[in-house]
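Hi support team,

I submitted a single chain yesterday and got back a structure, but I'm not sure I'm reading the token output correctly. Could someone confirm the output below corresponds to the sequence I sent? I've pasted both exactly as they appear in my results page.

Thanks,
R.
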Amino acid sequence: MFFERPDSGEVAILVHLDLADDSQREDPKEFEELALSAGADPVALVVGSRKRISSRYFVGEGKAQEIAEIARQHDAKLVLFNHSLSPSQERNLERLFECRVLDRTGLILDIFAQRARTYEGKLQVELAQLEHMSTRLVRGWTHLERQKGGIGLRGPGETQLETDRRLLRVRIKSILGRLDKVRKQRDQGRRQRQRAAISTVSLVGYTNAGKSTLFNRMTESQVFAADQLFATLDPTLRRVEVEDIGSVVLADTVGFIRHLPHKLVEAFRATLQETVESTLLLHLIDAASPERDENIAQVELVLGEIGAESIPVLEVYNKIDLLGEARPRIDRDAEGRPQRVWLSAASGAGVELLFQTIAELLGDEVVHQELHLTPNEGAFRAQLYAQGAVLSEQVDEQGGLVLEVRLQKRDLLQILTRAGIHADRFLPTPAEHSW
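Hi R., thanks for writing in. Yes, this is the structure output for that exact sequence:
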């Protein structure tokens, strides 16, 4: 690292405050899960309430002394706060506790650093860490803030702090350049899928809602899935076949969380762009979670922040096996359009209903009709059979063929173009749909 800090360890003290401001409130149970996901060994949870945070210690001075005593009793090397701390507050607390202090943002960054596997993911995590670190350099270099005079003690013209800030800026600029290349590669892949008219369906939702388990169930893949926060960090794309639709790209994305650090949202914009460019979003919801409604609101908030609020969303209520009497089903609105699907990704119950619903939502352009072919249009007939679109075939009185077909409109247009047949012959013009 660029600066000296107290050694970290796994034995940790957790600190949670109930604040008067509802917008700053956090969930202590989720905080404990975050600590466990990071590999910490929580030995004590210190709770309290406060109307206003202290500019010096965040908590009151008496509470800070209490936490320091508990840390000494347990020989803790790490104190985790379920809140965002300023650099000066972290510095003051570390001096008092004589151990490492980490806030909620730093804890999430550490989990992300452990989970990153791909080249892009590691770059994004490092970018977020460096930007977070840049405001905290002063803590470790207070003894080198000023240059010293005398032979052998004169600096190169800038303080050690200035040197490290410059090194950070250079590294951040380098990472941004590499991520820009990755973004262009992703954009190229998306453009190729758009030219091939392949829809993209993205799984989004609160962390630990079961996205990777459902992804594995739908794609028969082996993506890492675990009952822990942020088990998935790197996006995964797989092609699946949906009846009447054909090939669809399914994307498994990073989970959202309450008060997701803005630095992470910015750093992972290239990854989240996959969500923004999707045809349909599957918002996976833990149906058994006591904080279900709050988690739904947080996901919708992040979707709005990344510019994905206008994309069609299907709510998927997962883990119904934990609800007792719940059964797989599809809920529809007054017009009969699917709004939510209830299923269990772990057992597979209801997954077929999800495929059915995806086909229904993406299949607005499905053509199901009879095509009258002349005897010399055998090549066109062969392409329809190759597409698997022919349901039945008959011969009319004139010796022509009558085919009952069902396929995507875009696929029919592609076959017509290859066969040199004008689309107006089989597909109605827009004027024919006017009322």
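A quick pointer for reading it: Confidence is low (pLDDT under 50) at residues 1-8, 139-146, 430-435. Let us know if anything else looks off.

Best,
Support desk
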